[in-house]
Amino acid sequence: METLNFLITGVGGQGTVVASDIMAAVGFAAGYDVKKSDMLGLSVRGGGVIGHVRWGDEVFSPIVPDGRGDILVAFEVLEGLRWLNQMRPTGTAIVNQQRIFPVTVASGLAEYPTTVTVEKALLDAVEKSYSVPAIDMALELGNSKVLNIALLGATSALLDVKPEIWEDVIVERVPAKYKELNIKAFRKGRDWMLANKK
Prior knowledge:
The chain has helices at 16-29, 77-82, 103-106, 115-125, 134-140, 147-156, 163-173, 179-196; strands at 4-11, 33-40, 48-56, 69-74, 87-96, 128-132. By secondary structure, it is α/β, with parallel strands linked by helices.
């Protein structure tokens, strides 16, 4: 198959690195050659994080080439907008409905994009976009930290990999006491996308 390029972005502390690890492991378990790379900003302080994950028959580089992203998984709205220029026009953006104000916005030096601005940017950049209430799903389950798994669940519904493979990988990669919670988050995200996909 032609290489499938994922960009996974968010703010430090949201679980983006765990998500890209799981995405890479799922690709490997599904029989693909996989390469991945994570780039961390001041992630401990809430800086931006971007993960590149690539699945294919043979993948030579871990970095998604400029303008070749197929699926953008954004854990935060503004971080998603930052990476739209790396997407193919035929790509898909999956964006968590969460806004985390950077210091420049919180201090009044900049304005956070309006919903209208965000929607227009997504419409101009990619063929399909989904605004996923992943943070709400996580809070309904009682733990905001599983929003990353809810977003992976949503993403899984757009890919031709059995959900059992995803769940097996998730169970291997999360602490034992949180396995059931993470599987619930995965299924919640997947069910949402199955009900909403275009």
